[in-house]
Amino acid sequence: MTATIIDGTALAAESRKETAERVTAFTRAYGWAPGLATVLIGDDPASEVYVRRKRKAAAEAGLEDFHHHLPADASHPQVAALIGELAEDPRVSGILLQLPLPAGLDRYALVDLIPVEKDVDGLTTASQGLLARGLPGLRPCTPSGVIRMLDSAGVRLDGAEAVVIGRSELVGHPAAELLLRRGATVTIAHSRTRALAEVTRRAEVLIAAAGIPGLVTAEHVRPGAAVIDVGIHRTDSGLTGDVRFAEVSRTAGWITPVPGGVGPMTIAMLLANTITAAENAAYAAIR
Ligand code: NAP
After folding, report:
1. pTM greater than the 0.85 cutoff
2. Which strand (E) or helix (H) includes residue 26?
3. What spacing in Å lies between the alpha carbon of 48 and ligand 1's midpoint?
4. Measuring CA to CA, which residue among 64, 62, 56 is closest to residue 17?
5. How far is ligand 1, taken at its centre, from the CA of residue 210, in Å?
């Protein structure tokens, strides 16, 4: 068997186009463009690259760019005051606090200052509570991208056996919640899971988000499964994922590449969340 490749680059382009159309319609209707505020603290090079990419994609979709870069020694009250200003600013539809934060800042306390209706990363306690209860809300971007990829490929989730490798609050745990809400029978594997391959071989849908390069081999994969590789690792020979693409492609039914898989979808979902937040706020104001 040779797996069908789910092309995240193409799907993300389609999603960004849809978002740009919604932004244009919003701007025509209300006379102003919704804005995405990005808050970067410190000089972590990887974070700088991620934020630059997010701002560029947001600008291309027609969103206003409100960027703030604070020094690594910014204090909790300084960051809190900035988030407070952005929370109050009606031109800011979404707020993204780039993680990780420099040592000494409490990420949970700071993230939770973002109002739930502007939480375009879906990481506040309130957003995660809405997700856990299955109530409407802004969902974390990477897991939303994963679901969108599975849907685009026509992978059936209702009643499917799904295994998520990883239980982080950013990826693994919310991905499992979203799959559960879609009717999958979900197992979450993590670093303490015994006999990982035995667990993952049950999966018709396998999400790899362990952050271990090449962890998932053909031995871990049920023939015909949909395998979504969330991992991103920079190596001397370029970017690679958690899944050994060449060998797993011969067993899986669908597979996502790295690069060109989940990565582009994450940014596309951030933009989609921002226009959704703007539309929700506009409807709430006229209701
Ligand atoms: P994380 O916070 O480090 O979480 C990793 C998870 O994997 C943990 O739950 C850990 O278990 C589990 N794990 C570690 N080793 C394992 C093993 N040998 N077997 C099974 N489970 C294992 O990482 P993350 O933030 O979720 O990110 C995961 C990966 O996705 C990283 O490579 C990251 O760069 C990538 N990522 C990509 C995107 C994108 O847009 N494509 C976005 C975000 C993250 P414990 O909980 O027991 O420690």
Report:
1. yes
2. helix 8-30
3. 21
4. 62
5. 3
